[in-house]
């Protein structure tokens, strides 16, 4: 079928979408009176809809994914060439791009050793949870099976990932959940849980709260701690200094596996290859998905140390000793083929350095907006992953109405800039504007994005 569509063809696409597509994160009642937006083309940092309207995409595909921007012919060509040669084989055997991307990936991850392929961030995290449970069964008599997760963090859409997720509105209506997932406090200093400390001392105190949960549950029952390096959909939370070193110390003290969920931060989003590398953390598991191939093909990875991998090796012919798991589409070759080119682009174009420079500019512009607009209570971020929390009162930190935060997003869209906002995650607190433009962003792009936010804040709040 020819997808180079005419205006009449696009009209049919809109009607077909309304009639047949069940969209993500959308209440479809609205489509009884308005048309869904259809994105038909992208180039660099810009996309065009079915009406021909151009937008700057400040959220990399709306879900923090298209790290190297749209229209990368070399990635498309690499995928085409690979799938014509060999498109798929089950992961029980190897493929050329699977082996080569694992090798290249691990060069960027000192201390990590093995890559397990699947096709979404949720699935990558589910694999890690299963590995923890099987390690408990094989090496700890089934006792060390609890998995700790942090308030406000998000790890995916499966029932187990929701059980291990700290966003109550995402979890609502999907229980009952499997047992053995235990929540620890968040580390957002702006919304303090301990008033007597600040800065690095606050970071250490937030980490100490994890130890308190471990001691309450019993260290011999806790198998792993799963954390985002920077909390994403829970409000773009950069942990305070002092937090990560203390977390690492606690995990080693109690023989707890540290699982870092890099589904959002991985492959350059924070200005390093992985978010955890900003703090010198040495994890046991690292999961990743979105930016691994910048959305050009589906791929996710569960990466482990050799120590973890060795826990599943057994010379005896025990049919229960190995990791008895499969991801059908983890055997697709398009993902690692795209990922190899994606990584090469990041290296060749110096996009990690650009991310840091443009992230600094973005944070500076957001700070200026905070000075100008009283409704901006806090700005925070790392690299090109930034947020601005909107409040009705800076003294009390009362959030603005969620409808007003959404109105800012809609007004930015009307001005030709697509931004995000925390969405159906935190009851009454979905008021943080989210920004994650592609790593190719220019100073002009950054200024245009924040100019649109400036205008939108003025229109919505005066």
UniProtKB/TrEMBL annotation:
UniProt keyword Transferase, yes or no: yes
Entry keywords, A to Z: Aminotransferase, Pyridoxal phosphate, Transferase
One GO MF term: pyridoxal phosphate binding
Names of required cofactors: pyridoxal 5'-phosphate
Tagged with keyword RNA-binding: no
Transmembrane segments: none
SUPFAM superfamilies: PLP-dependent transferases
One Pfam family it belongs to: Aminotran_3
Family classification: Belongs to the class-III pyridoxal-phosphate-dependent aminotransferase family.
PANTHER family: AMINOTRANSFERASE (PTHR43094), AMINOTRANSFERASE CLASS-III (PTHR43094:SF1)
UniProt protein name: Aminotransferase class III-fold pyridoxal phosphate-dependent enzyme
Organism: Psychromarinibacter sediminicola
């Amino acid at each position: 079928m020819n997808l180079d569509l005419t205006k009449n063809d696009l009209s049919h696409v809109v009607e077909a979408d309304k009639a047949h597509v069940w969209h993500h994160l959308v209440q479809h009642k609205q489509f009884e009176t308005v048309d869904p937006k259809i994105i038909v083309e992208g180039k660099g940092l810009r996309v065009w809809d079915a009406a021909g309207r151009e937008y700057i995409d400040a959220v990399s595909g709306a879900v923090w994914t298209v790290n190297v921007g749209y229209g990368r012919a070399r990635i498309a060509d690499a995928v085409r060439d690979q799938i014509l040669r060999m498109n798929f084989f089950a992961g029980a055997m190897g493929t050329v791009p699977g082996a080569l991307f694992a090798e290249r990936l691990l060069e960027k991850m000192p201390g990590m050793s093995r890559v397990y392929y699947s096709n979404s961030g949720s699935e990558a995290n589910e694999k890690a949870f299963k590995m923890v449970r099987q390690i408990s069964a094989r090496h700890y008599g089934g006792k060390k099976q609890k998995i700790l997760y942090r308030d406000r963090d998000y790890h995916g859409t499966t029932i187990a990932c929701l059980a291990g997720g700290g966003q109550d509105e995402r979890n609502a209506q999907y229980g009952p959940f499997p047992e053995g997932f235990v929540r620890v406090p968040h580390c957002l200093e702006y919304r303090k849980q301990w008033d007597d400390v600040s800065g690095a001392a606050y970071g250490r105190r937030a980490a100490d709260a994890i130890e308190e949960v471990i001691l309450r549950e019993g260290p011999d029952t806790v198998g792993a701690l799963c954390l985002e390096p920077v909390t994403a959909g829970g409000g773009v939370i950069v942990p305070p200094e002092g937090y990560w070193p203390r977390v690492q110390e606690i995990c080693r003290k109690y023989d707890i596996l540290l699982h870092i969920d890099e589904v959002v931060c991985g492959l350059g989003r924070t200005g390093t290859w992985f978010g955890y590398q900003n703090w010198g953390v040495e994890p046991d598991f690292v999961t990743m998905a979105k930016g691994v191939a910048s959305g050009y093909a589906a791929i996710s990875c569960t990466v482990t140390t050799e120590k973890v991998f060795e826990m599943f090796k057994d010379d005896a012919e025990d049919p229960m000793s190995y990791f008895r798991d499969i991801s059908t589409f983890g055997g697709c070759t398009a993902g690692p083929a795209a990922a190899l080119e994606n990584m090469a682009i990041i290296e060749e174009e110096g996009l990690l350095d650009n991310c840091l420079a443009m992230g600094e500019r973005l944070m500076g512009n957001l700070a200026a907006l905070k000075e100008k607009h009283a409704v901006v209570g806090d700005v925070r971020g790392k690299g090109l992953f930034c947020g601005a929390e909107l409040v009705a009162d800076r003294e009390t930190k009362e959030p603005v109405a969620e409808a007003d935060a959404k109105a800012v997003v809609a007004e930015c869209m009307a001005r030709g800039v697509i931004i995000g906002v925390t969405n159906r995650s935190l009851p009454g607190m979905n008021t943080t504007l989210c920004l994650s433009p592609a790593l190719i962003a220019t100073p002009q792009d950054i200024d245009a994005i924040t100019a649109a936010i400036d205008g939108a804040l003025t229109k919505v709040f005066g």
